[in-house]
């Protein structure tokens, strides 16, 4: 979503500028600094060929991954996910030619596609972002097979955490809670006033009402803009990302990467934070993470080896995320359970939506009966 210099700037920014509610105290800033030092140590170790790695998988295939999970030795699974896990729900990814989000923003008259997610542009021209938010707003889409597969890993006690680049909140809709998730690029779940002197917090329901009333959300206290807590270009990642990475990745037994091109930093560089012996499974429409060796050495993605003679831990399963999760669930003996979970949850969501529509219709009907009908609708000029 940005060029290389912007991506590096995003990683270098300090966590002290985080919105209230995302940055907790100075100890988290120290954790972020410690994490950066750990990353440097890891990178130098990798670059100099130090340390040794034990081969864990008996075969670099999906079958080998399944056998490892079923062995009982795999107890802490981390997931890293991107927009590709939500495309089957009807949410476009960013970069697919013709169908991606960036390819279809002409109607917003932007100077360039990424401007819609740049904080300086947003503060001057918030209308395009909120028009897009109305189209893609959380609650209009159902979680996918992939989302429920992640939830099933949680229910079976295997999921340590899910790190997501997505802002669609479908992980939460599938049943993951705040402790299960690291929303690395923020979330629509909460919003804050952009004024540094105010920073008032607002709920998902408050923001939804404003957006679907065609209003630009303004703070009730100071009248400044209110922005969902998603990370725009020009903003820091949530401090919790850095502190939790330091705890989670060294303990990871299996890293599952799904639906991401591994192009956005610093998220992409997280693949290098697991131990040298930790298997890494990529489920994606194409291989990712095989970047220039120098970029890998500097911590900007890369480092995955699927095909060379030295490959010993990385597995690429080329398919849609849903198909890959179904195939893995089948090998694990979970497929029927996963399909039943998806069917049951989608039926529940449909039923809930119907009830909300009926309730909304009843409310509108009651309001119409209580109020006399206007003599004529107002003209545009009167509005």
TrEMBL record:
The active site is at 185 (proton acceptor). The keyword Zinc applies. Residues 21-35 have a biased composition (Acidic residues). Keywords: Metal-binding, NAD, Nucleus, Transferase, Zinc. GO terms for cellular component: nucleus. Residues 1-35, 345-383 are annotated as: Disordered. Residues 363-373 have a biased composition (Low complexity). It catalyses: N(6)-tetradecanoyl-L-lysyl-[protein] + NAD(+) + H2O = 2''-O-tetradecanoyl-ADP-D-ribose + nicotinamide + L-lysyl-[protein]; N(6)-acetyl-L-lysyl-[protein] + NAD(+) + H2O = 2''-O-acetyl-ADP-D-ribose + nicotinamide + L-lysyl-[protein]; N(6)-hexadecanoyl-L-lysyl-[protein] + NAD(+) + H2O = 2''-O-hexadecanoyl-ADP-D-ribose + nicotinamide + L-lysyl-[protein]. Its cofactor is Zn(2+). Its EC number is 2.3.1.286. Residues 1-13, 345-362 have a biased composition (Basic and acidic residues). One of its GO terms (molecular function) is NAD-dependent protein depalmitoylase activity. It is an enzyme of class 2 (transferase). One of its GO terms (biological process) is regulation of multicellular organismal process. It is found in: Nucleus. Residues 55-335 form the Deacetylase sirtuin-type domain. Pfam families: SIR2. Zn(2+) binds at residues 193, 198, 219, 222. NAD-dependent protein deacetylase. Belongs to the sirtuin family. Class I subfamily. This is NAD-dependent protein deacetylase. The gene is sirt2.
């Amino acid at each position: 979503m940005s060029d290389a210099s912007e991506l590096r700037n995003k990683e270098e920014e300090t966590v002290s500028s985080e919105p209230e509610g995302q940055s907790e105290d100075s100890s988290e800033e120290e954790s972020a600094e410690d994490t950066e030092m750990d990353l440097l140590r890891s990178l130098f170790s990798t670059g100099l060929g130090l340390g040794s790695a034990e081969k864990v998988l008996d075969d670099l295939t999906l079958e080998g991954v399944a056998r490892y999970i079923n062995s009982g030795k795999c107890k802490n699974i981390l997931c890293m996910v991107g927009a590709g896990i939500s495309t089957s729900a009807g949410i476009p990814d960013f970069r697919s030619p013709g169908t991606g989000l960036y390819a279809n923003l002409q109607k917003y008259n932007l100077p360039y596609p990424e401007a819609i997610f740049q904080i300086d542009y947003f503060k001057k021209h918030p209308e395009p972002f909120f028009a897009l938010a109305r189209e893609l707003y959380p609650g209009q889409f159902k979680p996918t097979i992939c989302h429920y597969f992640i939830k099933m890993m949680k229910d079976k006690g295997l999921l340590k955490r899910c790190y997501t680049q997505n802002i669609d909140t479908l992980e939460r809709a599938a049943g993951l809670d705040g402790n299960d998730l690291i929303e690395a690029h923020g979330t629509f779940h909460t919003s804050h006033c952009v004024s540094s002197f105010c920073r008032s917090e607002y709920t998902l329901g408050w923001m939804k009402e404003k957006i679907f009333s065609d209003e630009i959300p303004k703070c009730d206290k100071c009248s400044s803009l209110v922005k969902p807590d998603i990370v725009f270009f020009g903003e820091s990642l949530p401090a919790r990302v850095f502190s939790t990475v330091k705890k989670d990745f060294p303990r990871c037994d299996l890293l599952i990467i799904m639906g991401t091109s591994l192009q956005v930093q610093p998220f992409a560089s997280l693949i290098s934070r697991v131990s040298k012996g930790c298997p890494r499974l990529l489920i994606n429409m194409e291989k990712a993470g095989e970047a220039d060796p120098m970029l890998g050495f500097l911590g900007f993605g890369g480092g995955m080896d699927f095909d060379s003679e030295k490959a010993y831990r990385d597995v690429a399963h080329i398919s849609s995320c849903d198909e890959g999760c179904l195939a893995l669930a089948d090998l694990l003996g979970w497929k029927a359970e996963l399909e039943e979970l998806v069917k049951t949850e989608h039926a529940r969501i449909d039923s809930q939506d119907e009830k909300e529509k009926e309730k909304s219709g009843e409310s509108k009907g009651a309001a119409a009966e209580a109020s006399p009908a206007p003599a004529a609708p107002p003209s545009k000029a009167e509005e």
